[in-house]
Amino acid sequence: MVSMWHKVAVVNELEQTQQNVTNFLDDLKKYLFDSQQLVSYGMTLIGIILIYVLSRFIIRISSKLVIRMMQTRERSPLKFDPRRTATIGKLINNLISYVVNFITILLILGQVGINLGPILAGAGVLGLAIGFGAQSLVKDVITGFFIIFEDQFAVGDVIQVDAVRGTVEQIGIRVTRLRSWTGEVHFIPNGNIKQVTNFSINNSLAIVDISIAYESDIDKTVEILQKTVDEIAGTNDNIVSEPKVLGIQSLGQSEVVIRTIAECKPNAQVDVQRLLFAQFKKQLDANGIEIPYPKTVTYFKGERGAI
C-alpha cells in the first residue's frame, strides 16, 4: 500500500515538473517571438554592429594618421633611430586601441541594458587613488612621453640638463640616462627635466685664438693661417664650410690675438680645434713667427743687460 502511494507521488511530481517546463517554454516563446521584443532585439543588434564597425574605423584611421605623423617626424632636422620611431608608433597605436576598445565595450554593455554608473564610478575612484599615490611617477611618465613625442632629443645626442652634460644612452618613459665624457652615468627622472639644451641638432663652431708677438707681421700671419685652414678643410670631413681667419680679436699686454672660425658637424668642434692648434703651431714655427710666452729679463750693474 505504501509502495503504491509512493509511485503515485512520483508520477504526480513528474507530471508537475513536465507541466512547469511546458509553461516555461510557452512563456519563453511568447517573449522571444513577440513582435515588440523582436524589434527591440533587432535595434540592439544593429546598435552593437554599428558601434563595433565605427570603433574599427576609428582605429584604422588613427593608425594611418600615426604612420603619416611618424613619416613627417623622420623628415625633421632631429633624426630618430628607426627602431625608436617604430616603437613610438606602436605605443601611440596601442594607446588609441585600448581607449577605443574600452569605450566600445562600455557602449555595447549599455546597449544590452547593463547600468554603467557603478562601473564608471569604480574606474574613477581607482584612477583617483592611483593618481594621488603615484604623482611623481605619473609626472615622469607624462613628461617622458612628450619628450619622445616632440623629438626634443634622441639616443646619441649630446645634451645638457641643468649642470649635467653628456651623451644620451637611453630615453625611457620614466628616466633618461646620460653618460658624461669622463664616464659617469647619470639617471635623470623625466619629471625633473625643466630645460634641456641639445648640442646635436645644428652644426657647431670651432673657435681658435692664436697669440703672436707685437713684433710679428700681422698680414703675413693672417695669410699663413688662412692657407693652413684651407688645406685642413680640404681633407677633414668634420669641417662643413670654408674656415675664415677673422683677423685681430684683441690686443693684450704682450700679444696680439688672431681669431679663426670653422663651421663643423655637430659636436665635432673640439676635435677640429685641437687639429687647428697643432697645425697653426707648426706653420708659425716654420715661418719664424713668434708665439709670445713669459720672459724674465735680468739686469746686472755696470752691464747693458742679459737675458
UniProtKB/TrEMBL annotation:
Q: Which UniProt keywords apply?
A: Cell membrane, Membrane, Transmembrane, Transmembrane helix
Identify the residues that the record assigns to the Mechanosensitive ion channel transmembrane helices 2/3 domain, covering every copy: 94-135
* Residue ranges annotated for the Mechanosensitive ion channel MscS domain, each copy included: 137-200
Superkingdom of the source? Bacteria
Q: How would you describe this protein's topology in the membrane?
A: Multi-pass membrane protein
Which family, according to the similarity comment?
Belongs to the MscS (TC 1.A.23) family.
- Could you tell me which species this protein originates from? Paenibacillus lutrae
One Gene Ontology cellular component annotation held by this UniProt entry: plasma membrane
Molecular function terms in GO for this entry? Answer: mechanosensitive monoatomic ion channel activity
- Listed transmembrane segments: 38-59, 91-113, 119-138
* Broad class of where this protein is predominantly found: membrane
Pfam families on file: MS_channel_1st, MS_channel_2nd, MS_channel_3rd
| Signal peptide boundaries | none
The record's subcellular location field reads: Cell membrane
The entry's function note states: May play a role in resistance to osmotic downshock.
Q: What is this protein called?
A: Mechanosensitive ion channel
Q: Which residues form the Mechanosensitive ion channel MscS C-terminal domain?
A: 208-291
Report the InterPro entries cross-referenced here: LSM_dom_sf (IPR010920), MS_channel_1st (IPR049142), MS_channel_C (IPR049278), MscS_beta-dom_sf (IPR023408), MscS_channel_2nd (IPR006685), MscS_channel_C_sf (IPR011066), MscS_channel_TM-2 (IPR011014), YbiO_bact (IPR045276)
